[in-house]
Structures are given as structure tokens and as C-alpha cells.
């Protein structure tokens, strides 16, 4: 390899390293910044853990896994149609419970606002003392 070819390949490698450094700098948060990873709800985490445990406990043959939500069966390492339906139903139930619990404070504040309006005559934007 000649001296000119060596310099050209070094420039290409150097350019690739600079692009890599630039890419890494974009993806790694600086000190004090927060990088938001994928957020999983507790229901999704629960279901992922149940499926992971069930898959880890199965051997070469699919074995049913007894869980809190019933028996989960797997076919060739994948959840059967009934298991998938049961897991989606459980996920919907967990999400509905979360929505109810998160809505309770808003409903309580609305009831407080209505009570102050009816008993004290406080209008929107007023402060009742």
C-alpha cells in the first residue's frame, strides 16, 4: 500500500470515527439530563414477567403454567389463542383499575367544587374563605 493510499484510508477511518462520536454524543444524555426509556405500565410489567416466567419454566415441550389469572398454555413456546386472550383481558382489567384509581382525585376535586358552588355560592375563579 502506498503512502497516499494509507493516508486516504486513515482519513476515511477518521471520518467514520468522527461520525460515530457525533452519533454517540446525540444518544447519550449529558450530566443532569434525563433520558426517557420505554415506559411500561405495571400491568404490562406484570404480564411480561408472567410470560417470561412461564417461558423460562418450560422445557423443550410446552407445559402449562399455573398463574394467578389461571393456567397459561403455550404452543411451540408461544402463547395459545386462549392464553393470549386471557392475558389481553387481564391487561385491560389492570388498565381499567389504574384509570379508576388515577381518576379518583379529579372526581373528588370536582365534587368539592360543586359543593362550594351550591353551599357557599362560590363561582369559578373565586376563592371561598
- Sequence of secondary-structure elements: HHEEEEH
**What structural class do helix, strand and pairing data support?**
mainly alpha
Number of strands: 4
Quaternary: single chain
Task: Report, as a whole number of angstroms, the end-to-end distance.
Answer: 88 Å
Query: Number of folding domains?
Result: 2
Indicate the overall shape.
rod-shaped
Number of helices: 3
Low-confidence stretches: 20-28
Strand order of the largest sheet: 1-2
Q: Let me know the largest β-sheet.
A: 2 strands, antiparallel
> What proportion of the residues form beta strands (DSSP E)?
5-15%
- As a whole number of angstroms, the C-alpha radius of gyration is 29 Å
- The helicity comes to 55-70%
The chain-level mean pLDDT equals 74
What would the keywords be for this entry?
129 residues, mainly alpha, single chain, 8% strand, 2 domains, two-stranded antiparallel sheet, two-stranded antiparallel ribbon, rod-shaped
In short:
It contains 3 helices and 4 strands. It has 129 residues and is mostly helical.
Can you describe this structure?
The protein is mainly alpha-helical and 129 residues long. The chain has two domains: 1-30; 42-129, no CATH class. Helix content is 63%, strand content 8%. The protein contains three helices and four strands. The strands form two sheets. It has a two-stranded antiparallel ribbon. The longest helix is centred in the last third of the chain and has 40 residues, at 81-120. The radius of gyration is 29 Å and the shape is rod-shaped. It starts with a helix and ends in a 9-residue tail after the last helix. 3% of the residues are buried.
Amino acid at each position: 500500500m502506498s503512502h497516499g493510499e494509507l493516508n486516504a484510508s486513515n482519513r476515511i477511518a477518521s471520518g467514520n470515527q468522527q461520525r460515530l462520536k457525533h452519533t454517540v454524543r446525540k444518544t447519550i444524555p449529558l450530566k443532569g439530563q434525563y433520558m426517557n426509556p420505554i415506559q411500561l405500565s405495571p400491568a404490562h410489567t406484570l404480564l411480561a414477567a408472567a410470560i417470561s416466567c412461564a417461558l423460562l419454566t418450560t422445557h423443550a415441550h410446552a407445559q402449562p403454567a399455573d398463574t394467578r389469572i389461571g393456567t397459561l398454555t403455550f404452543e411451540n413456546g408461544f402463547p395459545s389463542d386462549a392464553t393470549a386472550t386471557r392475558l389481553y383481558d387481564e391487561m385491560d382489567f389492570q388498565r381499567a383499575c389504574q384509570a379508576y384509581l388515577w381518576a379518583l382525585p379529579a372526581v373528588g376535586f370536582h365534587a368539592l367544587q360543586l359543593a362550594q358552588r351550591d353551599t357557599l355560592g362560590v363561582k369559578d375563579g373565586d376563592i371561598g374563605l
